[in-house]
Design a protein that fits this description.
about 100 residues; mainly beta; Immunoglobulin-like; 6-stranded antiparallel β-sheet; 3-stranded antiparallel β-sheet; about 55% strand; globular
Length: about 100
Amino acid sequence: MLSKGEFLDLYVYGYDVPEAYAIEKNGTMYYAFYASSGKESNKQKNTWSGEVELRGLGNHSYHVTDYVNGKDYGDVAGPAAKLKVDFAGSLLLEAVPAGAGH
């Protein structure tokens, strides 16, 4: 249950594009991105194509997956990693510490 995790105030609504949120739970980071605003978003189709930044990773490596669609984004390193993504509506990512079994 992500509601038991710690909400991290890493993104600013209305400033960071796309809209983003981060939660840390038991050493794993969870990110939610929404294609609802911004210059790179297509508001009619509610899609996003571009980079997203995974903040709050510290100086650690993580393995990233889209846990809804099962897409593997591979390994990234902190403190902030950028991923090239394309999505419609929302993108929900799980970043598991490297070596933690993914």
